[in-house]
Amino acid sequence: MTELLKKSETKNLGKSETKNLAAEDKKQLGMSETRAKKIKHSYKVKDAENSLLLKLKDGDVVIEMYPDEAPNHVARIKELVRQGFYNGLKFHRVIEGFMAQTGCPLGTGTGGSGKKLKAEFNRKPHLRGTVSMARAMDVDSADSQFFICFADCPWLNGQYTVWGEVTSGMEYVDNIKKGGGANGMVSSPDEIISMSVIADL
User: Fold this and answer.
1) Which regions of the chain are under pLDDT 50?
2) Where are the alpha helices (DSSP H) in the chain?
3) Could you tell me which of 68, 112, 161, 180 has the fewest CB atoms within 10 Å of its CB?
């Protein structure tokens, strides 16, 4: 039978080696299975395999994806997320009252992952919190760039592939640094700290 230590005995124990670690180093430490499960369940998503955790400077954003509406886009986004592709990418184009765009490895809106996706336009409307794919004039030119709507944008319906929605943390999306001018390009833009599939946490 395990005996509990008396208070006087605990004083002689060595200090935890992780106690004085910097926050960055603590992130590298392993996590118990129980704690990982608790964190996963705390996000209250319908399907952890098709939900993303987007970490921003102000807090965590949960995106639930639509594999039934845009299966190829969802599969590709998950593939890129699992490769760590989005970690550190900038919100290069952000327009107040419209949307925040990210997913360009060059930070200019001209780059991608190198794999174009065939459009999967669907009946999902562009509402506040909608996550949709950016593209060029060619409808089948979407790659890795996506945008999150700050407000309802009905004129985009049926023109861009909607693949998810923000189900919590929209207030942190609202805080993403906005750009100036008509095209919304941002100087010293905010970044994606990390993106993960919630099933992998």
Assistant:
1) 2, 16, 18, 26-27, 29
2) 7-10, 23-27, 33-42, 71-82, 170-174
3) 68
CATH numbers and ranges of domains, the chain = 50-200 (2.40.100.10)
Query: Taking the mean position of all CA atoms in its chain, how far away is CA 75?
Result: 15
Q: Where are the alpha helices (DSSP H) in 21-126?
A: 23-27, 33-42, 71-82
Question: Measured between alpha carbons, how far is 162 from 119 in angstroms, rounded to an integer?
Answer: 10
**In this structure, are residues 197 and 78 in contact, taking their beta carbons and an 8 Å threshold?**
yes
For the beta sheet containing 51-56, the strands, ordered from the edge strand earlier in sequence to the opposite edge, are 93-95, 99-102, 146-149, 130-133, 162-168, 59-65, 51-56, 194-197
Predicted confidence at residue 20, as pLDDT, reads 56
Place of tokens 């124990």: 13
Distance of CA 41 to the CA centre of its chain: 17
- Give the per-residue pLDDT at 27: 46
> What is the token pair recorded at 93?
């184009």
Tell me the C-alpha distance between 72 and 68, whole Å: 10
Work out the end-to-end distance of the chain between its first and last CA atoms, rounded to an integer number of angstroms: 34
